[in-house]
């Protein structure tokens, strides 16, 4: 191998830091995670708001260790929680939580708010919710707090290296266009035109997310909207998925994939990754027994046909075994169904995750972050700065640094630090 002396020196520095960096806390080692969107991914922001879109009363959260509700629309963990598990990170705190300060900021943040959509007028019946533009403003505000904690360049890097999830669009149909017969939007637009309008607004939102520093964004399309217990009860015939809502999802999802491709080619990099939520959910909805569910039509918690009417609350029917149900409440999957979805995200083929799945993203990004860290160390050998120690120890557990760790003691005839010092002083004299 033909390394330059400075490359060898920096490798040694990285090696030493890798040993020291082994002591850093897990939240620091894992990449940050940011979540935007609606109730499918809200971790409890709406608890802090005067809104009817909330999940802060039993039996929500019944299968968590505390058995207490947290604001998640689930019996237990939700999709972002399970993604955090895969990152080896703590779950993200809601942005409005008073606990989100200090070191907790390093984990990331969850900006999602139940009831919101792409459009500002989606979810107006829930009154006070965090619309997507406001979520993005909060993301900016978050970045200032993070800068105060670790410095501007560190904060920018942590945001650039983060994983981002955004889940939007379902409510623009369910809680807007199809909310009531002859809704304002349905009188204004034929469905295909409405979908085109949604997509053009979504494009701006994603562009803004990129401008704010997001560089790896998983964008979920809408699920099978017509198949949720609420729609089976309200609109479906004989337990068949409602064809009109299914048609809406069928128009929306492919156009979403198109704009993600367009954004990626404009940027020149695979920043946006589309997650085929329709396919992931449809898998177990169409074939519940194959996934160990007894039903995908009846919600565990609710009332009326399919337990699909109204909200899940303390007076509702409640199933004894949540693992046997695909749907927890009239709109939201159980933790077990969420786990199926995330497993498709992790290892699914391009049919589910395009252009690549989450396990590929994690390994590709870890390698490129390590290479970038090594390059920074090289640059800093020439111009040392105060930040240097902290910056390199952040990425210390990456595979490339580990490779250095193994390589150097074995193949170098002299102890590497001695040799590096010689090269280093030699280079300095030139
Ligand atoms: C939604 O509201 C935000 C902030 O109030 C505004 O900037 C944005 O243009 C609005 N979007 C649409 C589509 O009207
Ligand atoms: C998804 O992940 C698995 C391994 O976890 C991998 O074998 C497969 O090739 C990946 N697929 C794509 C399309 O990235």
From TrEMBL:
**Which is a GO BP term held by this UniProt record?**
lipid catabolic process
**Which regions span the lipid bilayer?**
none
| A GO molecular-function annotation | hydrolase activity, acting on ester bonds
Extract the Pfam families matched here. Answer: Lipase_GDSL
- Please indicate if the UniProt record lists Ion transport as a keyword: no
Record carries keyword tRNA-binding: no
- Where is the signal peptide, in residue numbers? 1-29
Q: Which keywords fit this entry according to its UniProt record?
A: Hydrolase, Lipid degradation, Lipid metabolism, Signal
Family assignment from sequence similarity: Belongs to the 'GDSL' lipolytic enzyme family.
- Name assigned to this protein: (wild Malaysian banana) hypothetical protein
Its taxonomic placement starts with: Eukaryota, Viridiplantae, Streptophyta, Embryophyta, Tracheophyta
């Amino acid at each position: 191998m033909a390394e330059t002396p400075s490359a060898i020196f920096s490798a040694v520095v990285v090696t030493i830091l890798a040993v020291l960096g082994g002591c850093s806390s897990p939240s620091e080692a894992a990449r940050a995670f940011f979540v935007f969107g609606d109730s499918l991914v809200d971790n409890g922001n709406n608890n802090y708001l005067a809104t009817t879109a909330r999940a802060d009363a039993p039996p929500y959260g019944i299968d968590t260790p505390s058995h207490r509700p947290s604001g998640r629309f689930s019996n237990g963990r939700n999709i972002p929680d399970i993604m955090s598990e895969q990152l080896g990170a703590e779950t993200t705190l809601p942005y409005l939580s008073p606990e989100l300060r200090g070191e907790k900021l390093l984990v990331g943040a969850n900006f999602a708010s139940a009831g919101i959509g792409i459009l500002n007028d989606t979810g107006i019946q829930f009154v006070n919710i965090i619309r997507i533009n406001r979520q993005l403003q909060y993301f900016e505000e978050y970045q200032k707090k993070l800068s105060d904690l670790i410095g501007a360049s560190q904060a920018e890097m942590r945001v650039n290296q983060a994983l981002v999830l955004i889940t939007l669009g379902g409510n623009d149909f369910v809680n807007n266009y199809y909310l009531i017969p002859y809704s304002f939007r349905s009188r204004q637009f034929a469905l295909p035109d409405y979908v085109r309008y949604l997509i053009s607004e979504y494009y701006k939102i994603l562009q803004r997310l990129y401008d704010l520093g997001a560089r790896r964004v998983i964008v979920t399309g809408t699920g099978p909207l017509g198949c949720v217990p609420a729609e089976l009860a309200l609109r479906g015939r004989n337990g068949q998925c409602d064809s009109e809502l299914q048609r809406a999802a069928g128009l929306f999802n492919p156009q979403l994939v198109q704009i993600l491709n367009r954004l990626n080619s404009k940027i020149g990099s695979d920043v946006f990754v589309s997650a085929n939520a329709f396919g992931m959910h449809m898998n177990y909805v169409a074939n519940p027994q194959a996934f160990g569910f007894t039903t995908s039509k009846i919600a565990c918690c609710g009332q009326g046909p399919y337990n699909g009417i109204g909200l899940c609350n303390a007076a509702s029917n409640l199933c004894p075994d949540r693992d046997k149900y695909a749907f927890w409440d009239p709109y939201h999957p159980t933790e077990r169904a969420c786990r199926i979805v995330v497993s498709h995200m992790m290892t699914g083929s391009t049919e589910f995750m395009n252009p690549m799945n989450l396990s590929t993203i994690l390994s590709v990004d870890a390698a490129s972050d390590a290479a970038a860290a090594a390059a920074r160390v090289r640059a800093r050998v020439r111009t040392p700065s105060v930040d240097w120690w902290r910056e390199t120890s952040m990425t210390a557990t990456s595979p490339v640094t580990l490779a250095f760790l193994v390589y150097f003691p074995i193949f170098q005839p002299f102890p590497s630090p001695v040799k590096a010092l010689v090269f280093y002083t030699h280079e300095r004299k030139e």
